[in-house]
Amino acid sequence: MFSLVARPTNTYLDDLLTDFFKPASSVYLPSSDVEEDDDAFTVKIDLPGLEKSDVTIKVEDSVLMIEGVKKSEESKKKFWQTERRKFESFKRSFTLGDIVDVDKLQATMTNGVLEIILPKKEEKKPKVLNIEIK
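^ thats the sequence. predicted structure below, dont judge the formating
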């Protein structure tokens, strides 16, 4: 069974420690889901507040890479009590393998959710040759 592998994989503890020790400007790792049916994989990534123009998608060496940039809001305040919404960039990557037809990828973005359809390659059926007996 083939599956898409997301990199990097974070656990709740990783996220908690990262949040505690991260500098004010850091890399953001958006949440994602990967679904599979008979014909395709579907990757959904939550990107609230981003526009299509903020996101790039590319495939290189069988790795799907999604990158984006969101500029932080400028504030005239001198001191933040908390600043949890700030992030500058993100990168997510998924290893595709040979089962995905990269020439037929489709992507849409609706209400802050990026959806990428990764069609599977058609299985090559073994060639059957009937030989006439003379």
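The mean pLDDT is 79.
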